[in-house]
Amino acid sequence: xxxxxxxxxxxxxFYLIQLGLVCTIFALDGFRDIFTVxxxxxxxxxxxxxYLCYRYYTNKTFYKHLSNPLHxxxxxxxxxxxxxxxSEALKELLESQFRSFHNEMYHYQNKLxxxxxxMNQWVHQMKTPVSVIHLMIQNxxxxxxxxxxxxxxxxxxxxxxxxxxxxxxxxxxDFQAESVSLHKVVTSLISSYKRFFIRNRVFxxxxxxxxxxxxxxxxxxxxxxxxxxTNAVRYSAGINQSITISAFERGRQVxxxxxxxxxxxxxxxxxxxxxxxxxxxxGRKYQESTGMGLYLVxxxxxxxxxxxxxxxxEGQGTTIRLIFQQNIARTQEG
Length: 334
Prior knowledge:
- It is an enzyme of class 2 (transferase).
- This protein is an alpha+beta fold.
- It contains ten helices and seven strands.
- The chain has three domains: about 1-70; about 110-170; about 175-325, Heat Shock Protein 90 (2-Layer Sandwich).
- The strands form two sheets. It has a five-stranded mixed beta sheet with strand order 2-4-5-7-6. A two-stranded antiparallel ribbon has the order 1-3.
- Strand 4 and strand 5 (about 255-260) form a beta hairpin.
- The protein is elongated, with a radius of gyration of 34 Å.
C-alpha cells in the first residue's frame, strides 16, 4: 500500500493542479453557478479515486511482492495471476536477467571447480617428490642436509594448507564422523614436529590424558591442532620457552588447550585474528605468516560443530581452546 501511494503521488499532485486550474477558469467566468462547479469537482474526484482503486486492485499482489524481500533467488516477484502489461513486462525482464545470471554463475562455478581439481592434483603430485627427498636425506647428519630437511618440512606444510583449504569448499564429501582420541592426535603431532621444536628451541609439555574421546573427524582435527601448535611454536621461537598442550573437562564439554608463552597478540588485532589473510602486527615481523592458519581452524570447527576460544596479551603469550560439546566417553573402555 505504501509503495502504491508513493508511485501515484506525482499523479495526485498533477491532478490537484489540474483541479485548481479548472476552478480558476470558473472563477474568471464569475462563478455563475457554484453548484455546477462543485458537481464537476465531485465527478472528477470520484473518477480519479475509481481509477486509483482499479490500479491498486489489479496490481495489489505486484506491489505486495515489491515491498517484501525475496528469500531465495528462485522465488518469483510475480504470481501467476498477474496480468497487467507492466507486471508481465517486468516478469519477462527479471526472468531474462535471472537466466543470464544463472548461466554466468554456472560458468564461473565450473571454472572454479576445474581450478580446485587442478590444485588438488598438483598438491598430490608434489607430495610424492617431497616424500622421496625426505627418504633420501633422513639418515644424513651434515648441516646442509638438516637445512634441506627443514625447508622440505615447510614445503610439505604449505602443500597441506593448500589441500585442506580447497577441501573446505566441499567439506561434507570429505567428512567422516568417528571417535577421536585427543591423546593420540596430540602425541602424533608432537612426534611429527620434533625437528620443528628443536629448530625453534621450543619445548612441548603435554598433559592430555588418554581417556578423552570426542566425536569428530580425526583427519580434520589433526590438521586443526597442527595449525595451533605451529602458531604457538612460531611465535615463541628462539626464547627458550615451552608450549603446553592439555585437555580437561568443563561441565559436559571437553577442552583441548594450546598455551604458549610467546609474544602474544596486540589487543587491536584480537577481533580480526580469525579473518582470512589477516596477519596483523605480528605478521609483519614473521614473514612465514599467511593469515590463514586460525581462519582454517575456525572454519573447521564451524563445520564440525565445535567451538574455539582465544585469549592473548601482548608479551605474555596466547591460549587457544578447542571446545568439543558432543557426548563423550570418559574412558576408552566405557
